[in-house]
Amino acid sequence: MMKLLSKTTKPFLIFVMVVLAISIPVYYFVVDAIWKDELDEHNEIVAEKTSYEFNRMKISKEELQRNISLWNEIQPGTNIEKLPYNNLKKVVTFTTEKYKPFSADTKIERYRCLKKVIYIQNEPYLFSIETNIEETEKTVTIISVITLFFFVLIGAGLFILNRRLSRTIWTPFRSTLDKLKDFNLNSQTDIEFESTDIAEFEELNQSLRKMIAHNVSIYKTQKEFTENASHELQTPLAILKNKLDILMQDEDLTEKQYNIAEDMNRALARSSRINKNLLLLAKLDNSQFDNSETIQFDRLLHQSLEMFTEHFHQKNIIAGENISSNINVKGNKSLTEVLINNLILNAIRHTSSNGSIFITLTDSEFEVANSGAKSLKTDLLFKRFSKISTDNKGSGLGLSIINEICRFHHWEINYRFESNLHVFSVKM
User: Fold this and answer.
1) Model confidence pLDDT, tens digit, residues 258-304
2) Secondary structure of the chain in the HEC alphabet?
């Protein structure tokens, strides 16, 4: 996972690299154009200077022709040629490539050329001059090296700034994050965030303070409700059940009245189970359990299997087991018992008569498998009050409680259907 500053710095570096890469050919063409313009101006000056010097000499035409011939022989890259009046040419500038004259070097080089008509002693002459422009490539090479140097400098600077900013500017944010990680609703203590001169971080801290205060208030209310409901709801339910038991023992009850009372008793028992399960879920949501006990998982599992032996016999279920010994885990013993009982009871309830149940326990996984015909709907499997079968005896909270207990212990519950078996596995 990439840090925020790195995430913003990377696109910036890429942008700078692209811009600098584009700048190199731009530098080349711009410098080359400027160089050519300067050379054209230089060639113009040389042509005017040559015309001026010849006119200033005040010599005869024969002497002039001898000097021009001498000039053409000893002055490399220039030529003065007599023109008739009917063949005057315009000023022409162009670039040509050729081998360097008077040199053994076979490298082809570029030259900037000028052809211009000058007047010497009022006679037209075609003045030609060629000037080497290979210095442009050297200039561009130097610019490219300098550009690369500055790119490296920018990259190193951004890297150093990124590290320093991470240690200084982001210190209040990291402090806030660490305190949020350590915050526990059970402690119900306010968090004191460090003061900062960065407006965004201070605004974040203010929002977090309000949110935490609101959540602590809600948590207290929920906890009070859980405690009150545990006492207030269970008592009238127990009284009603007791009264119904007494009523059902009355010898004066008719068969119809007894059936009605029995239906009421079953509904009341189901309501009591739902109430207990909802209270358990509320306590789990509020983290009202200790999870630091050392639990002998294999012993709890054997105790549960003994308790459900009669259920296996009633439905003629074949129970197979592969339970490793001395399996100890950290957690809450009572919740672990609920987890084991709910998984086994769920398997019994949804296994047809003459079916089979297989229970496996290793040092890292607890697995309950029962025979079945088709796979269950996984999207509704662990939702509260969802029905995975047509059986109405359950509360619809068993698998949801199992899921919450696993979440509380940081275990992982999974379901799969294979070889006509429903398999629930808990990875510990």
Assistant:
1) 888 888 888 877 777 777 777 777 777 666 677 778 889 999 999 99
2) CCCHHHHHHHHHHHHHHHHHHHHHHHHHHHHHHHHHHHHHHHHHHHHHHHHHHHHHCCCCHHHHHHHHHHHHHHCCCEEEEECCHHHCCCCEEEEEEEECCCCCCCCEEEEEEEEEEEEECCEEEEEEEEEECCHHHHHHHHHHHHHHHHHHHHHHHHHHHHHHHHHCCCHHHHHHHHHHHHCCCCCCCCCCCCCCCCHHHHHHHHHHHHHHHHHHHHHHHHHHHHHHHHHHCHHHHHHHHHHHHHHHCCCCCCHHHHHHHHHHHHHHHHHHHHHHHHHHHHHHHCCCCCCCEEEEHHHHHHHHHHHCHHHHHHCCCEEEEEECCCCEEEECHHHHHHHHHHHHHHHHHCCCCCCEEEEEECCCEEEEEEECCCCCCCCCCCCCCCCCCCCCCCCCCHHHHHHHHHHHHCCEEEEEEECCEEEEEEEC
pLDDT one-digit tens code per residue, 116-167: 999 888 889 999 998 887 666 677 678 778 877 887 887 788 778 777 777 7
- Considering the entire predicted model, what is its pTM? 0.48
- Do the two domains 1-168 and 293-427 of this chain adopt the same fold? no
Q: Encode pLDDT of 234-263 as tens digits.
A: 778 778 888 888 888 887 788 888 888 888
CATH of domain 293-427: 3.30.565.10
Return the top range by mean pLDDT from 25-29, 124-128, 232-236, 380-384: 124-128
Domain extents in the chain: 1-168, 172-232, 240-285, 293-427
**In CATH terms, is domain 1-168 a member of 3.30.1490?**
no
